[in-house]
Design brief:
heterodimer; A: mainly beta; 4-stranded antiparallel beta sheet; B: 4-stranded antiparallel beta sheet; 0% helix; 49% strand
Chain lengths: 119, 108
């Protein structure tokens, strides 16, 4: 069974940093691209960024709203994807989800972790 | 960026009803369209991809159609567990995914 478990969320002050982790199981993690999405309270879904599998270079892409502040990485030996968030803003407050990408389709989502940016 | 527009934003229906949600893309996206269901406090769940392909395990009362710019999600006979918010998502510009604003399906 495919499982994605996010961790690392919490309350953080504006301007500070936070790192989220996504621990995967039930599939060969290294074979898949992974994405991060977020959902602000009461709002819709927003794509945050993406990391390709090593077979496709392991390169990353980011939404304009987070580019230069957020960094996605992966450790295939541990089946973990990371979202490093720097210079956090109040508008980054959201539930953050990691997802598995299967042939460009987001087929599995984690349960999400809440990040609250507030002073 | 490709904009996705869903209608209606909310919908009231009864169990047993047939409902249709529409999604329009700001440019042609071929069949690179997925539908997700989200219940309060839960992660989205993939229902349909490639505009009309049912994800494994999803009941056959869900169906999708369309290509180019106009798409529909139909639930043929609403069950109590179907009351949720539905999102369309384009992956034509993968990995720059974009979603519709969501359609909240409520019990009448």
């Amino acid at each position: 069974e495919v499982q994605l478990v996010e961790s690392g969320g919490g309350l953080v002050q504006p301007g500070r940093s936070l790192r989220l982790s996504c621990t995967a199981s039930g599939f060969t993690f290294g074979d898949y691209a992974m994405s991060w999405f977020r959902q602000a309270p009461g709002k819709g879904l927003e794509w945050v960024g993406f990391i390709r599998s090593k077979a496709y270079g392991g390169t990353t892409e980011y939404a304009a709203s987070v580019k230069g502040r957020f960094t996605i990485s992966r450790d295939d030996s541990k089946s973990i994807a990371y979202l490093q968030m720097n210079s956090l803003k109040t508008e980054d407050t959201a539930v953050y989800y990691c997802t598995r990408d299967r042939k460009n389709v987001v087929d599995y989502w984690g349960q999400g972790t809440l990040v609250t940016v507030s002073s | 960026a490709i904009r996705m527009t869903q209608s209606p934003s909310s919908l009231s229906a009864s169990t047993g009803d047939r409902v249709t949600i529409t999604c329009r893309a700001s440019q042609g996206i071929s069949s690179y369209l997925a539908w997700y269901q989200q219940k309060p406090g839960k992660a989205p769940k993939l229902l349909i991809y490639a505009a009309s392909t049912l994800q494994s395990g999803v009941p056959s009362r869900f169906s999708g159609s369309g290509s180019g710019t106009d798409f529909t999600l139909t639930i043929s006979c609403l069950q109590s567990e179907d009351f949720a918010t539905y999102y369309c998502q384009q992956y034509y510009s993968y990995p720059l995914y974009t979603f519709g604003q969501g359609t909240k399906l409520e019990i009448k």
